[in-house]
Amino acid sequence: MSLVRVALGFSLAALIGIPVGLLMGASYHARKFLSLMVEMARPLSAIALLPLSIIIFKARTFSQLLGLEYLRYQKNLLNEMQLGMIFILFWGGVFPIILGTIQGVRSVRKMHLEAAGILGANRLFSFRHVIIPSALPDIFHGLKLGIGRCWMVIIAAEMLPGTNSGIGYLIRYSYQLSRYDIMLASIVIVAFIGALFSKGLESLGEKSLVLRSKER
Amino acid sequence: MEKNLSFSEAKKDDMTALKVTNLSKTYRESAGDVHALGPVSFEMEAGEFLCFLGPTGCGKTTLLRTIAGLEQPDTGEVIVQSPHYSGEPIIGYVFQQGALFPWMSIFANLEFPLKAKKIAQDTRRKKVESMLDMMGLASFASSYPHQLSGGMQQRAALARSLVMEPDLLLMDEPFSSLDMRTSQELQDNLRELLKRSSTTVLFVTHNIEEAVYLAGEVIVLGHRPGRIVRSETIDLPDPRSRLSDTFTEYLVSLRETFESLVSD
Ligand SMILES: Nc1ncnc2c1ncn2[C@@H]1O[C@H](COP(=O)(O)OP(=O)(O)OP(=O)(O)O)[C@@H](O)[C@H]1O
Ligand SMILES: [Mg+2]
Radius of gyration of chain A from Cα atoms? Predict the structure, then answer.
């Protein structure tokens, strides 16, 4: 359950964070305009926002969002996807992704851009074939930090009342039942999955240099 | 391209490929202005090979960058024209080093300018393959730049500039980061290639021998801000020999000019 939540929140963060980061990296005006917002929002820890997000989103879940009210009292995946939780996952993951992407776009070598221009590339073509591939390793670094954050946030969020599934919930529940064996096992699993995420993205990032150029 | 008879006839007499008038450039820095170049004026005819020879920091790179439109000049103007047809002339630029895209294979690097011009895929493939063959790079098509030696990388960079069949090719000390043998080998290749094309080449270097070996005309620039000190036509028979007497005469004579620069 935790995994599905993270997948959802993290995808959302990547889906929004990367384009925003690309825009902020490439355009001076977008950077001026958005950086104030990002800098204000960034220090607000996702966990600090949890109560607020519960107030805003109530206990709404995806089944309600999608108008599938009848699922509400059944055991269903969509029913477990509390909007508030997805929101704070998004919040936790999106900033490292935005910052990583900006960093990537900004670190493009001037010579490569000039060469592309002389070779006849217009802005869009340069963006697609020079800026994005140059930025890719940094983007992956941002994603790696982002998913680490998401994983931290979800465990904390699931420990709070109002949840009855997920590995965070399992840790808290086993603690209440004094089943320290289960609790410890869960913690090990959490650490393991966290490391897996981060290693996975890291190796993708390393491949990114090669992957890019295979496409023609 | 549509043929416009009167236009092409009018152009026929005009073999000017590049006309630079009163060009000068000052970099405005917070630490103070750097007057890097000029004013310089010169002209090139289509198919000519002109070499600017000058000491470090005299504004050679600045000159090429301004002609390529990468820097705005303070005074003067640059006119580049294609003698064969109307329309925008194609300018090629070979950087000193490292301008290949490291995330692309050599094939993809060469394909880049053709793709940017939206040339059809099979035409692209053919052009790239024949260029790779001509440059002796065929076996490196799917390698990445970092897997190639410095000499091979510069060869690939040169190939990437030539594949778009430029009217004017600007070369900024493209071989000066290489050892002497590799550099001479590439000089030979370049001469060989240019025999088969009508490309006009503007080459800059601080290496006198390279200039005399390659160029039809050598222009010496003085210390910063670079101005034209001397202009010399190199009249040597075609397979040039670095050991011939006339070659050495040019070398010595230009070295004298070069040395007199340092003393004032
Ligand atoms: N972008 C820049 N901003 C400020 N000063 C610059 C800039 N580019 C070059 N200069 C200065 O202008 C002068 C000429 O530089 P340029 O690179 O054109 O010389 P060069 O003849 O190509 O030298 P080299 O042989 O070392 O390549 C130098 O003093 C350099 O420090
Ligand atoms: Mg230079």
Answer: 20
